[in-house]
Amino acid sequence: MIQIKAGAALLPHLVHMKGRGALWAGLALACAAGAAGAEPVAPAREAELIGMVRQDCGSCHGLTLKGGLGPPLVAPALKDKRMELLKHVILWGRPGTPMPPWRSFLTEAEAEWIAVRLLKGFPDER
Amino acid sequence: MNARVMLAAAALLAAGCAQLGLRGTGDLGVIVERGAGRLQVVDTTRQARTGTVAGLGDLSHASVVYSRDGRYAYVFGRDGGLTKVDLLRMRIDRRIVQSGNSIGGAISQDGRLIAAANYEPGGVRVFDSDTLELLADIPATWGDGSQRAKVVGLEDAAGSRFAFSLFEAGEIWVADLSVPRAPKIQKFANVGRQPYDALITPDGRYYIAGLFGEDGLAMLDLWHPERGVRRVLDGYGRGEQPLPVYKMPHLEGWAMAGSLAFLPAIGRHEVLVVDTATWREAGRIPVAGQPVFVMAQPDGRQVWVNFAFPDAEKVQVIDAERRKVVQTLTPGRAVLHMEFTPRGEAVWISARDDDRVVVYDTASFERRAVLAADKPSGIFFSSRAHRIGF
Predict the structure, then answer these.
(1) Which is nearest to A59 in space by CA: B254, B292, B349, B372?
(2) Closest residue to A98, CB basis, from B101, B212, B352
């Protein structure tokens, strides 16, 4: 088991560790570190994010988000998942799987915006 | 049947014939309109659209194979839809939903069998190409037998055989469908971690699966399956930390020029060059992003490369002799696919986020035409009908 000391600064190290335990521990930490300080996302950017999720995430998860090489991201498939987990996976990826980290392209607030909407059922483009 | 009904039937028949006319299909093809679940039928001689065919379901990852007469396009949709589209009448001939989630398929050497690679439920289903009747169901079971793997890289091999890879299992299978309802399967285990796609050489001899989970490719000599699967380009990354991969490369379109083959490197801004005489790395070509498709022109003189997010607005052209990039084009945002005309004087390139397909002259790189299309992805010309591995 991994010892969690404190602080979100540990996260990058945790996600590079192998195995589910590390991922979950990392997530717990992400939750503890909190979703505080998430700024709102501008409407024009929202449209871009919707396009990005549908098209770029869609290349693995399907345009309808029903899954492909990646797992389905439709709301019923995510019903047991917490928002913080989704946000974390979006930002940091899942080592050992093809899921890449998107943090170079998304702010924390944007990842959270996406995670919240995935749980509710993601909006369509246009 | 009374006279009035007969007259109406005759009129309908006449109308149908008039509409169809007489023409070949060798210069026809389709463009997948990803979001709309629709195909455009296009004419590569006139460089124009001839019609549309709608109602094909979820085409977010669609691929197409052709009947050997070049008339019918078999479209494999993400949602498991398998649709046989008549290019001449520009309508759906037959359509079935054969699985929950599909990645693509292949047509047998004799044109009689269509095989679909499925993610959900993981496996391969084989259909009669005329009627789309199910002939064989091959579940991709692995481990203790209770799990099913996603099937990728399904290719047509000589005889009535299909070769494919099991993503989670790290296996390559060859299914012999000489007796379609009683397939014989040969399995190769431990070929490497997470095969994500595969190709077959133009002569049909080598089946090569790219590995996502490690640096290297798994190769099976279909002339000598008894020799087993061997690793090629093992450790091409040489311990470097690969970049995150924002889109899986595709291996279809074996880019070969002379004895050299060009392949996308996973997680690197490089095209790998392989000497097919020795199957050793013969060099690397730095490119503008992570390659998705690396495709040789039919004459093999130039190799065209498109890229994953966030470099997807570019296309680069490599001179195969000099092994360097000689041209960078920007056809539009989110370039998803490139397709050459049968003898390669032109290439059609889809730019999803600009809703267009751009036609370039492959010698001068001049833009010859721009066609409007709704979120275009794959472009598939009927000349694929006569190529192994397409």
Answers:
(1) B292
(2) B212
